[in-house]
Amino acid sequence: MWLINTSRLSLELFHGDKIPPYAILSHTWGDDEVSFQEFTQLSEAKNDKTTNKDGYRKITAACAQALKDGYGYAWIDTCCIDKTSSAELTEAINSMFSWYRISQICYVHLSDFKLDAAEVALQQERFDVEFRQCRWFTRGWCLQELLAPKYMRFFNQKWQEIGAKGPLSRLISDITGIPEVVLIVPPKRDLQDLPVAARISWMRKRETTRVEDLSYSLLGILNVNMPMLYGEGQNAFLRLQEEIMKKYNDLSIFAW
Fold this sequence. Notes:
The chain is of the alpha/beta class.
């Protein structure tokens, strides 16, 4: 997997048990993200077009937080996957849940949460309202990013910390419909012990840009693997069901 060196802001490739401790970012994509190619081809010029992107500022902010917390490496999906390589993209999608799980910490950047960190404790009702309305809770890929990491901290638009998954587990459960026993830190129930249909149901109110990703983003949550075939549309879910039936003796899948 590719990781960003948080001191040098450059990519380094690691394999197997050679992967160092790293922080990982969960976020919603915007229109101005930095790709793998753009990040690897950065020039040192201060007026470089890439460094003026909002996506680049998000990368540097996440790396700065990781460095502050003592992590020499970080992983961010926008620039750590070469999406022009179908083999690398397939490996990344099938591995992503485990990459989030083995991370040391997951930072969630809520780009539409504007309440200042100093106001959070004083305006609990407003916090709850703004938190519930965050786009992060509506995106398909963010479901596995919520479930996989051991530790998760939330940051507002200005990259000020506003809470952690453990203390916010009841509120997150109410927003998502996911049982709190799965969300508390450490969880009281393993994700894989829950019925398949229940896990799939958590995706019900979420969206992805591409219809296939509604199925692909469930792979880690359901602990199955399959190749990516962008362009197959709803057939992705049929293939997912086939993989589930090969692995589980769980009749709840027929609810879908």
